[in-house]
Structures are given as C-alpha cells and as structure tokens.
Amino acid sequence: MExxxxxxxxxxxxxxxxxxxxxxxxxxxxxxxxxxxxxxxxVEYCKKQLEGSSVKVAAVVGFPLGAMTTNAKVFEAKExxxxxxxxxxxxxxxxxxxDGEYNYVEDEIRKIKEAIGDNVLKVIxxxxxxxxxxxxxxxxLAVSAKADYVKTSTGxxxxxxxxxxxxxxxxxxxxxxxxxxxxxxxxxxxxKKYIEIGVERLGTSSGINIIEGTExxxx
Length: 219
What we know:
- The mean pLDDT is 96.
- This protein has an 8-stranded parallel barrel, surrounded by 7 helices.
- By secondary structure, it is α/β, with parallel strands linked by helices.
- The protein has one domain (3-212): Alpha-Beta Barrel (TIM Barrel).
- It contains 9 helices and 8 strands.
- Helix 3 links the parallel strand 3 and strand 4 (87-91).
C-alpha cells in the first residue's frame, strides 16, 4: 500500500504564507504525495514550486462555507484551473441541501464540472451538518452531476471525517464516484482504516506523520 499516493498534502489556513507554502511543496515532492491542496490565491505559486515533479495542485472552491453564488464558484473553479490546478474541491451549498432545493445543489455541481472539463471535481458535502438522509442525498446529487469524488469535510466545520460517514458515502456512490476523507486523519493506523473501507483519497496536513508512523495534529 503506497500511502503517499492517497494523500492530498493540505494547507488551507488563512495565515498560510510563502514560507509555509514552500515547506508544503518541498514535503510533497520529498514524500511524493499525490497533490497539494491549497486556497485559490496560492495555486499559481504552488504550481511553480512543483515544476518537474509529479505532484498535482488541488484548489478549494466556495471554501469553507459553500454559501457563495453558483456563478462565483464557477468563476473561482475556472480561474484555479487556468492557474495550474488539475483538481477542484468544492463545497456544496449546505443550506440549499437542507432546504430540500436539490435541483439547485445538483445544478451547481454540474456547472462547475462542466466548467473544468476533464479535470477532477471533488464535492465536499460537510457531513458534520447533515442527517443520514442528507448525506445519502448529497452523494446521489454529486453522482448525478458527474462529479469524480464525494468528500466528507472541509476540516473547518464542527467535525471532520468518520469511518461511518465514509462507509455510507462509499456504499452510496459505489464505483461511479470515489470518496475522499478529510478532517482528522492524522496517523497511519487511521489512514489505513479509511483505505481498507474503500476511500481513495485522504486530505490531511499530517501526511508526514502518516507516512512515518508518528502521531500529529492537523487538518
């Protein structure tokens, strides 16, 4: 099991500066992580830092609340791709989902996917705010809108990933989409448990702790 290739090495803090971004990219290259996951304003910079490596750049969109307009999210996603990202991690409009405005949620996901073409779209459903039914519904809407992944959490909500939620999401999407767990995945034992139940990607700032088998704190 190549744990490193499951990891989106992540820094999404509002205070993330160039020194921290440099460190993130150097670590990603050293450990050959799948990608770095950063805020949109840092995509172009990280892309340059990762030149010559296989590490990809993922950008978050509508982050962390998901409460922006659809047009704003579409613009943000397109710009991130233009600046060098090949993966987009978008946050759904959580309130619209909870209000039962399913067409709105699905349409928004679809428009973002269409805007980024063959690039990867991960849909953050923020499970900590959802009921069992809403988690299933959100996954179904993401699949219907042709998203590539469903993702548990932003890491900025009231809770992060749980094995129970990841299993439910995997059961719902089957082989049509993949599952990313994020928020609270901080050690090798936990990472392996997620992978064993079918999770294909892990969003974490504790990638080095996971690879080296040490415990740490982080996203």
